[in-house]
Amino acid sequence: MKVPVRDIPLGWPVAFVDALRPRGRRDHCEAVDMTIALNGLRTVIYPSPDLDAAKTWWTALLGIEPYFDQPFYVGYNIAGYELGLLPEGPPDGALTYWSVDDVATAVREAVALGATEHTPVADVGDGIVTATVRTPQGAILGLIYNPHFKIV
User: Fold this and answer.
1) Distance CA 71, CA 55 (A)
2) 88-103: per-residue pLDDT in tens?
3) What's the burial of 93, exposed, middle or buried (CB within 10 Å: 0-12/13-18/19+)?
4) Domains in the chain and their CATH numbers?
5) Distance, CA of 82 to CA of 44 (rounded, Å)
6) How far is residue 131's CA from residue 142's CA, in Å, rounded to a whole number?
7) What does pTM read for this prediction?
């Protein structure tokens, strides 16, 4: 009897689990080759039409002042990750950015695989480069290169 790996209770011996896994099938936790090398989660941006009120709320919640505070963007450094507030944020809700070494290349690769450009590659200042693409399924994928945040 074959049992799907996802249906095997936690704690079962690895040898038993391996014996149940269909041959040639990848386990959902195994590494796979990727065209775009995502370096890790980097930034989440929350739409904040009332930027001053949002900044007050997030500052109180986080207990720290923003590291970047301008009328067009407010950013907090949270343990090496960025939480951003954007007054003209995406109507689709929070936007997550994945760190990449080369935003333009990552956009080209995503588009070649069926994504469409959502916002073009842009140097937003201080060496930070961003872009977004819309996946074939309709989700927005944010890509960012930020030399000021290093993965630890």
Assistant:
1) 11
2) 866 677 889 989 999 9
3) exposed
4) 1-31 (no CATH), 40-145 (3.10.180.10)
5) 6
6) 6
7) 0.61
